[in-house]
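Try it yourself: sequence plus protoporphyrin IX containing FE, in.
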Amino acid sequence: MDFSESLSSLSPLLCVPLFVGSLCLALNYLVYSRRVAEWRKSKIPFLEPSFLIGHKYFWSVGSNSAVVPIDRIYRENKDKDLVAFFIATMPVVLVRSPALIKQLFVKNFDKTFETGWAASQKDKIAQHMLNLCTDKGVWKSGRNALSPMFTTARVSGEHFAKIRNQIANMWTHAEEARLQGKPINTKQVAMNFIQDGTSNSFFGLGANSYEKKGELLKLVESFAEPGWNRLLSAFAQMHLQGVQGFESLKFITQNHIESMKSMLQKQTAQRGQTGSNENDFIDILINLKEQDQGKKEDSEMDVTNEMIGLGLSLLLGRTESTAILASFTMHLLSLHPEYQERIRQEVDEAMRKHNTTEFTYEVVRDLHFLDQCLHETARLYPNTSALTRVCTEDVTLAGTDLTLKKGERIIVDAYSVHRDPEHFQNPDVFDPDRFSPKNRDKKAIDAFLGFGTGPRKCPGYKVGFLMASTLIGSLVHKYEVRPRSHTKQMDAYDFHPRSFVNVHKDDILVDVMPREILAC
Ligand code: HEM
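Structure, out:
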């Protein structure tokens, strides 16, 4: 029997997948060989893809976090400032050197404006989300509109009181767990604290997630919940600018949009009825819409695309980033009682200085060592390992003969840069003092990428730090935190394999012991 006879004897059930599979592999091959030829022409160093199926490094994604293979490529290419390869079918250029990262993200901002997460231009709501927006004018006006939300001073006074109110809920929860001999779950405690603080102080809601899970917490969790569908939706968002048709694979789903829209409708209608002005995020959105009256096609609607996009921009990924940071910090502090003690002394001192026994805005703002602990945690466990940009024009790199072509996708792996001994001495050691004003040097400042870099750097981390400091300062002030589930410091192998952010795969459980009992 010759080859064609063997083929025709196969059942149609086998023939169809065989045909489709072969077609995909042939297309892949064409994609690989074309891009490799371009890299060769532009003198970009690259890793030769294995025949038809990309790089073996990424075969383990799904059982390990994508950081594991990217970190391996980073370490194995020490002699190069950048190196290109494929993540499955997606071509990327990993930029290793901080000087080059600066050149691309800061100096060439106009040519690398788009993030790798850019939304399709047809997506009218996602185009108003800051990190997905592809129009510089829209991005600039959105960032300006939101800027009052990012100043810590705005979160002082009444707004800070709404964040501080979460302390009592958290202490009650910790005490109940302790009395039952149970540990506390650091990520859950942090999510409740940060999300309720954000819901109440930014959106004017009255959330208490210990009593009833709030609407916004459900929205945030459904966005960030690790799983194959979220991993694939993140890949599709980067590679194809979103998936049309498959709702569950969309990065921003109709469900996210509807939840945000209905919350905004309720809150804006209430403000309209009461006429109250809270000077919060809802009022900023209402003012924005009033300024637009009649200028945009949807400006007559009760809630515009811009309001929904900016609302999602402020929420999705943000509470989660701050909560994960707080959770990792509790893990590290549980392993380092000496640093907990320094935070306690710092809190006592700040309270004395401001003549109070409360966690006021002024007290939290003075917790400088705790701030160093948060920076050091963001170094060891940066929120994302895919800081990305896409070249919107050809970029020739100064001092080299290398050119990144229009459409080239740049990625920077903050995890690898942060653990490179060239930039940080003893990089795997948790040492908050490396961020003290005395020790902070220019080399380390340039290599620290915990909040990104350039004009698209995270605008909200200071507000995030304020909330995380309030949570951790108050927890450590009242309790000694001891490790239960994780007695060794985590690394990339402990990250969730199916998450698009760096989050621990298992719950971090810690025990709490009240200081007054320990003092007896
Ligand atoms: C404290 C924990 C946080 C961490 C570690 C963090 C980290 C990051 C990172 C790495 C980026 C990408 C920057 C880049 O591409 O160069 C980013 C972007 C962003 N972050 Fe944060 N973030 C945090 C908290 C927040 C908070 C609390 C908010 C809002 C109040 C916020 C709002 C944003 C926005 C709007 C962007 C997109 C900026 C743009 O594309 O122009 N972040 N963040």
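One thing you can check immediately is this: The longest strand covers residues 82-87.
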